[in-house]
Backbone:
């Protein structure tokens, strides 16, 4: 029993950050994301004996990361259907990005590497805001492929769709994100 627990932890714990990031973007709430990940880990633990089986529908051996992200998605969707309250949080609370902060007002006297960091942070903020405005289906495909760096087959497995359907959604999601970014800049 202890060996199985150790094996579970060895396989699943390295994916905790990715599971939280995915859950956060699905729920857009820190507390909801934590609850989703906790529940997903409990479910993954319960299913651990079945986890290595081949998924006949997809035809791929299931690995811990894919399995965990699939469970995270299911739990988040179920919570959403049940009407879990989503608290909105500020994406960034950084003095560099606050136009009223002393740090922001003195950027003219800041070394170039700090200014570069501020520009990078501003770019991330704009990207994250645009991403958060996308429909959930588009956020999911972009997060799995671009942020979590899953290949098409892996991401399709998490979403429980065919790779062709995933590619179609990814194309539409990228187009929508470009549109959102264009509106933000324009």
Residues:
């Amino acid at each position: 029993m202890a060996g199985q627990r150790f094996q579970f932890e060895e396989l699943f714990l390295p994916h905790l950050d990715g599971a939280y990031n995915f859950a956060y973007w699905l729920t857009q709430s820190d507390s909801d994301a934590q609850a989703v990940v906790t529940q997903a880990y409990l479910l993954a633990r319960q299913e651990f004996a079945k986890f290595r089986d081949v998924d006949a529908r997809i035809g791929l051996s299931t690995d811990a990361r894919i399995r965990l992200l699939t469970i995270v998605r299911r739990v988040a969707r179920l919570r959403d259907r049940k009407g879990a309250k989503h608290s909105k949080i500020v994406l960034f609370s950084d003095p560099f990005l606050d136009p009223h902060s002393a740090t922001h007002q003195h950027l003219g006297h800041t070394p170039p590497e700090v200014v570069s960091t501020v520009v990078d942070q501003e770019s991330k903020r704009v990207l994250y805001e645009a991403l958060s405005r996308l429909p959930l289906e588009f956020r999911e495909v972009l997060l799995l492929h671009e942020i979590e760096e899953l290949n098409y087959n892996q991401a399709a497995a998490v979403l429980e769709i065919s790779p062709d359907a995933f590619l179609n959604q990814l194309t539409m999601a990228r187009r929508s994100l470009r549109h959102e970014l264009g509106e933000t800049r324009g």
Confidence is low (pLDDT under 50) at residues 53-61, 85-112. Residues 1-89 form a domain with the Rna Polymerase Sigma Factor; Chain: A fold (CATH 1.10.1740). The first strand starts at residue 54 and ends at 55. The beta strands are 54-55, 60-61.
